[in-house]
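From the shared-data thread, chain only:
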Amino acid sequence: MRRETKISTGRVALVTGAAKGMGREIALRLAEETAGVAVHYHRDRAAARKVVDEIQQGGKIGAAFSADLTVELQAIVLVRKVEKKFGRIDILVNTVGPILVKPWSELSALDWDHVLRGNLLSAFFCLRAALPGMRQRRWGRIINLGYHRAEQLRSFPNITPYAVAKTGLLILTRTVAASEAAFGITANLVSPGLIEGGVLPRSLKTPRGGLGTYKDVAEAVAFLASDGARAVTGTNLIVAGSWKM
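Structure, as tokens:
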């Protein structure tokens, strides 16, 4: 039996990149515990609408919103539209995070810009826009998606911009956690390991215990979004089993 996370039923969540994959699973999991979920997508409106339909079938409020979160103005407009529709944003989950597998010596400035904006600046734009409302209500949960090696300062020759962005996201997360604690706002990073359906190394041998799932990550997010996690902030919660331990 699933243990209740005890998120107040009046809370509203915004999940970015929620049309498919991990973001979708997180949105559906949070819909079980909240009054409603705003489903962000960039291009795939049909997939986002399916997520909204599932949320509504569960008796909760759902709505889909499109935005290119690498553009600050679009991120701000997204947050304002969600606040207008739902009246508030209590939980912000930033799952947008493109990965580029390419030797570092072949990277272009555009490659760097794409990955850094997608993983780091998109989260920064959204959380900065959502913070004023959270401060006013003196309650908030910011959960960013990292990756299981975000704290490892070593070489990553084939995913260099991604590794840099995710480590930067961890620093941003902890900075926000420290600065917003007085307002009852927590900020945490959830860092998945190898996930079924995700980007996997070609030479992968299935790790002992198997791969993680989107549901595993969604459960970690649901916990950090709960009232019971009020004293958990600035943490990097690694959801990777024993992979590379």
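The longest helix spans residues 109-137.
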